[in-house]
Amino acid sequence: MKFRQSAQGSFYSQRFLQQTIFIMVHLSDCEIQAINKIWCKVNAKEVGGEALSRLLVVYPWTQRYFVTFGNLGSHDAICHNAKVLAHGEKVVRSIGEAINHLHDIKGFYADLSKIHYEKLHVDPTNFGRFCYVLIIVLARIFSEEFTPETQAAFTKLFHIVADALGRCYH
Ligand code: HEM
pLDDT digits over 41-62, tens only? Predict the structure, then answer.
């Protein structure tokens, strides 16, 4: 078990810190409202396709998980790759379903976490990367409506999503 030293000099286990961070992340009613206000207007095909395309361009090493998707040789090829666009849509739809299970996102993502860990061997750092890219896409599409407060609410939500998907790795 790994240990970290706190500022006060005492030692905490890595697992304890992860659990504590999770408990600290709580969405208020106001934040849930801000998320729903944007999410009800999200076009999963548009947002998901752009987010996954951007992930594959900005972090090119993530392409290795999608070798069966065909041509990922350039930005243009990725943006027009039907498999990339369809998978991006699938991922964003899944996040939409998670928003309907805010009381138990860990439970909702238990099976998917296992699939990404055991079958797909996805490095969990990439969950955070995808969520980061998703924030950028939402900000681009919703512009002024995507206020700093809304961004803060989505950042919290995506932290919970990434943590839930990473559950099997802990
Ligand atoms: C962060 C949010 C993510 C969500 C909500 C999510 C969700 C999903 C879902 C719903 C599936 C379909 C599972 C099935 O058919 O049983 C899937 C498959 C997959 N995911 Fe994720 N995923 C996420 C992030 C990632 C990331 C960051 C990567 C890699 C960089 C990744 C790689 C894959 C791969 C390779 C598949 C299988 C694709 C195929 O062959 O059809 N996922 N994901």
Answer: 999 999 999 999 999 999 999 9
Atom of ligand 1 nearest to the CA of 83: 41
Q: Which domains occur in the chain, in start order?
A: 28-169 (1.10.490.10)
Tokens found for residue 120:
């797909």
pLDDT higher than threshold 70 for residue 8: no
What Cα–Cα distance (Å) separates residue 7 from each residue in 10, 24, 97?
A: 8, 19, 39
For a mutational test of ligand 1's pocket, the pick from 39, 61, 65, i.e. the residue with the most ligand atoms closer than 8 A to its C-beta, is 65
Taking the C-alpha atoms of residue 155 and residue 120, their distance in angstroms, rounded to an integer, is 25
54 CB-contact burial (10 Å; exposed 0-12 / middle 13-18 / buried 19+): buried
Backbone angles phi and psi of 5, in degrees to 5:
-95, 130
Q: Whose CA is nearest to atom 6 of ligand 1?
A: 91
pLDDT category at 117 given cuts 50, 70, 90 is very high
